[in-house]
Amino acid sequence: MADSVPVIGSGAGNRAGDVVGVIPRAEYGRMVVLTTVMPMAVIATTWFLPPGWNLLGTAAMLTGFLLVLGKAIAGVPLALLISERNLMSLSRFQALVWTVVVMAGYLTMTLSRVKSGAPNAVGVDIPQELWIAMGISTTSLLGTPLVLGGKRARSPDEKLVQNTSVQLAEAPADIDAHRQGVLYANANMTDARMADMFQGDEVGNTAHIDLAKVQMFYFTLIAAVGYFMDVAMSVARGTTHAMPALSQGMLALLAISHGGYLLGKTSDHSNSKQT
Q1: Contacts of 236 (CB under 8 A, 6+ apart)
Q2: pTM
Q3: Confidence at residue 23, expressed as pLDDT on a 0 to 100 scale
Q4: Where are the beta strands (DSSP E) in the chain?
Q5: Residues 99-130, buried b or exposed e (16+ Cβ, 10 A)?
Q6: What is the C-alpha radius of gyration for the chain, rounded to an integer number of angstroms?
Q7: Cβ-count burial of 235 within 10 angstroms (0-12 exposed, 13-18 middle, 19+ buried)?
Q8: Around Cβ 133, how many Cβ atoms within 10 Å?
Q9: Which residues of 25-47 are buried (b: 16+ CB within 10 A; e: fewer)?
Q10: What angle do the packed helices 211-237 and 248-264 form, to 10 degrees?
Q11: DSSP per residue over 19-50, as a string?
């Protein structure tokens, strides 16, 4: 798709057919405005809202930016959560949650230090436990397509395709037309649903709830919300020299849930065969 629309003119000084200007895409125009307004809004939020509440405002600003980004580029507000199979992705969800929480916390603490006149305002310490948590999150995000890659060269058992067709009320021909190997896929991004995050990846188990995904969702939500509250209380107390540390127990739970999530993707749920 072209990034701009040429304007053709034949006025004085221009030969007929010459391109005399371009009209930028409206989406990109909105993005320019957004990327200009958002930093100013974040600064105003941190500066004028009470400590603690400014963190909530910054997180809301960052979330709004992600929604507008998805709408402007893909036409779907939650586009950043949608995988290449046009399904809502749990690994993308947890990565975005941690991104918003950590970035909001760092920005709020940094700008609070600027406001208070603290030296080296950007020198907010990030504890090792938080780096580990972010690493676990990134491993799931990058590891998911690697684990599922080999399944794109296999085909599911026809009986399981028929069973899934009945359970989802979807024609077998449509399932076969959109699947990627044994991996279930939707036709369009607009077909993605939040329920996708809890369903199996393959044609053989996509109509069933994946317990490993449910577990990972809850552990991610509990850890992220708990950590967000820790950051908010630190900001409210005026402790802005370092981000709070995650407990070793929480790191262990995150590692176990993410490990189970990735390990569960290695199993064959479709009685597949090599194509």
Answers
A1: 50, 51, 52
A2: 0.84
A3: 43
A4: 4-9, 18-24, 154-155, 273-274
A5: bbbbebbbbbbbbbbebeeeeebeebeeeebb
A6: 24
A7: buried
A8: 24
A9: eebeeebeeeeeeeeebbeebbe
A10: 150
A11: EEEEEE-HHHHHHHHHHHHHHHHHHHHHHHSP
Q: What 8-state DSSP symbol labels residue 3?
A: S
Write the CA distances from 77 to 63, 81, 256, integer angstroms: 11, 9, 31
d(CA 55, CA 132): 23
Q: Six-digit token pair at 54?
A: 């400014």
Closest CA to 53 of 120, 124, 112: 112
Nearest in space to 268 (alpha carbons), one of 162, 147, 163, 166: 147
Element (H, E) at 114: helix 90-116
Tens-level pLDDT at each residue, the chain (275 residues) = 445 444 444 444 444 444 444 445 556 666 676 777 777 887 888 888 999 999 999 999 899 888 888 888 888 999 999 999 999 999 999 999 999 999 999 999 999 999 888 888 888 999 999 999 999 999 999 999 999 999 999 999 999 999 999 999 999 999 999 999 999 999 999 999 999 999 999 999 999 999 999 999 999 999 999 999 999 999 999 999 999 999 888 899 899 999 999 999 999 999 888 87
User: Per the structure block, which two tokens stand in for 271?
Assistant: 């009685």
Residue range 235-251, pLDDT digits in tens: 999 999 999 999 888 89
Q: Tokens 């590692």 — which residue?
A: 255
DSSP conformation class of 89: -
DSSP 235-273: HHHT--SBPPPPPHHHHHHHHHHHHHHHHHTTS-SS--E
pLDDT value for 75: 85
